[in-house]
Design brief:
By secondary structure, chain A is of the alpha/beta class. Chain A contains 26 helices and 36 strands. Chain A starts with a strand and ends in a 6-residue tail after the last strand.
Chain lengths: ~800, ~200
Amino acid sequence: MKVTVNGTVLDLASGTSAIDAVFAAGFDVPYFCSQEYMSPIGACRMCLAKVGAPRKDRDGSWIVDDETGEPKIFHFPTMMATCTTAIMEGMVIDTLSQDVKDAQNGMVEFTLINHPLDCPVCDKGGACELQDRAYEYGTGRSRFAFDKRHQEKHHPLSDLITLDRERCIHCKRCVRYFEEVPGDEVLDFIDRGGHTYIGTLEDGLPSNFTGNITDICPVGALLDATSRFRGRNWEYDHTFTTSLDDASGSAIVVDARTGRIERVKSGLNPEVNKSWIDDGIRFGHEYVDHADRVRRPLLRKGERFETVSWDEAAAFIAERLRGLSGKDVGIAVRADATLEEGVAARALAEHLGTGQVDHAPRHGRTLVPVHGATLVDVATADAIIVLGDVSEELPALDLRIKDALKGVTPPPLLPHGVPIADLRLKERMPRASERLTVVAAYRVDLMRHAGHTVTVPVGGEATWLEAMTAVAHGERVDEAALAMSRADAEALIASWRDADKAVMILGGFVLASAAATAAADALGKAVGARQVRVPPMANGLGLEVTGVLPSHARYDYRHMLAGGARALLLSGLDPAQDPALAERLRGCELLVVHDMFMTATAEIAHVVLPAASGFEKDGTTLSLEGRYLPVRAAPVDGGEARDLTGVVKSLGEAFGQRLEGRSVRSARRVLRKQLGFEPSELDRLGLLQPLPKVRASVTVTTDEEATGEALRVPTMVRPEYLAYNPHLRAALGDPALRLHPDDAAERDLRTGDGVTVSVDGVPRRLRVVVSDAAPRGVPLVPATPDAPVGRAVVDLDALEVDRRALEVA
Amino acid sequence: MSAMHQLPTVTPFFADKQQLLSEILGRYPDYGQRSALMPLLWEVQRAERHVSEARVAEIAEILGLHATEVKGAMSFYGTYHEHPVGRYHLQVCRTLSCALAGADEMADFLEDELDLVNGETDAEGRFSLQFVECLGSCGTAPVLQVNDTYFERVSRSRCRALVDAMRRDALPEPTRERGGDNEAADPAAAAEGGAT
């Protein structure tokens, strides 16, 4: 459609909003209420413009202006909010005339009537949309001589979000966000007119995605309580990087100041996380600056550790290794190491001549599906089968699934980026919940949004998938295994088969079991569904496809720990939480731990090397959909902490060798040859590439058959860092042991009780949460990198109560 | 992230009113069940003279909404109350016509007489005083609405008599005036009203 904006003629697709036409033409118009991924509602009236269009006569011809001979432009009688106005053929939009300027002045003045002038103490000062717009479009003076409206200045919406009700300008972004994005209207306007305020009846905003409202608030009303009063926007170094919290590849912005991370905000990656991140990523960064971090290399001298230089530590390790055969050395990295660190681990293993190199946690099966689906495929799918608890395991997927239920495909990008007002989005859109099937052994949050839910017994995923596959092939099957009638199962399978784009999402519970993964593959093949496999940690897929794997299945991480290695280098892993493994590791001739904290394994190590956190290293990560994304170092003071390339550099120097992974740069030379592109040139949006096939002989390992009636479940918040994340811990409490009400009642346990319980022989300190999400007899404990998602043995009768929660009389 | 706010357990309002409930829900199509929000709130308000948080949660449960959503809608309307209003809910119209005809004097009188200010309920739970906007009976200003009943052209003496009567729990027939909204509806009462 032809549109004229301030004299600039543009050709835009039908359905584009007038505000996007203005921006596409290179002009600016102020707005507060619109947000790229939410419905335009025209609440703030800031984007007013003079809009007109030609009109057709009854005979279908344009009404012509007699003077010019051109179609006559009929202007709307009043200014129009451009965000809710769709363009029309021949539309003329004027944003520069005096009338429009007067309207904008008026709206700025109106918006500022009750807005406090506390910008000097406001965290948003300097990055505030209202402040900017008031400078650009206001008159600079107010005629409002009366008292401003006074409301609560510090209202805790939750332990992590603070609301200043005086600063709120009622743009409704946060209210719409909760209804439109996570799909839970837990925030609303209360009262009416000038008294309106934002409020909730829900205790502490029950959602995994609450922090995003602090990003989208155009003023300083909604503030992230962990970063409040910590610094001014212009003092922060903004590092645009990728989160290594999970395998979503979510874009984040790390704001650091004087060597500390003060805030993590969401970055924009339209095909990955859009502009949303979960609360685990946003609030779970404080461990990086924790006082307990190991900041210098430590060398064991008898019972104590002595602080040494990297050179001394490396010399000690080289000396010890000299007395050992290379084959006796095991090297294992945690699965959120970067690809560059993976190269370093491989180079070190190659130099030592050992095949015992691995990453952990790792399922015994490949993470590369036969027909993979991207996150955009998920967001545009018309049938989704979720096996597991993705809302906790990989929360970005949860939001993309909810996008799919709305059925609005991602908008095409305009010259200025993502459209500001996508007119297809509406408030309270109907959700096609029948597109979503959720299968899990306990009640997961996504089930509330699903049209079909199946609760399987613990470890029952394989049986259910096999039964469904049998139905798909028209074979006889026991209805009990389907957990639904055969007719329902047939209808469900037909709906998957008829779908244009069916996507199956395999969580950790399926991937932990060879039988369940095989059954999922068979069902996927039978109904024509593509697959998403959720890696256990951020870069599990990347480390697999770049070959940070043992030379033979029998040299894998588990076998290293079980006695295959006499010397071990463990990066980020903490197997010694298990007393039996700790005993075995004490017998090692050399135990080197590369970690951020003094973990149980570090305590018994010979050498502890300080590790850089995911915010302090440069590198590359591969997200679950096969997108290579850059990880960039923020200016954080980690002492002498280094990533694994730094470890290999020191060791190489001690060996008198220049190893390939001795720096990020040298590791990238290897990656460039292996992957066919230059990792240092990746932009923020990353590079989506087809995944290479991996040799099954090394990725497939034989699992010990998992047993136990308890489940290690994924959690959005990483339990291993919770103790070092003071705000998050104060808000959420210790990692939760979720118990069915009957199980809790039998043992006289209440929500909040601190307990020590043995999970697969590893004592864990947990907090009881009585919840009917847990089936009877199935305690749910949080998974950790060293005890990933899967079945577990938990003996509730041997549980010790540490303390009772404070009782309110 | 955390469970719903714990509310004291009370008997659900609609527990013994299933027929009423299904009648109200039946007015709306399946996809528009949330529209039943207003009538449900109104049922509770009429019976209990307020809508407590427990009732908000109950209605949210019935309609499959979050309690916040119900509260948001409820708080928009002045007719729903968070705290119980008195048995006699006095609503004084103070919009233009009533204001010109002496609504402020009526309001002052009621404030002094009942020792209440706008928005308050007395300790006994007998009277609540609320200032409201136009009640749509400008021809017979000033107007005082007691619960659902209009008292028109309320003079000082009529107001005193009315308060006295309510103190004896004897709410009189409404004073009705020619030109008032009630005239056509009930001519007999209108004729009689003039003589009161």
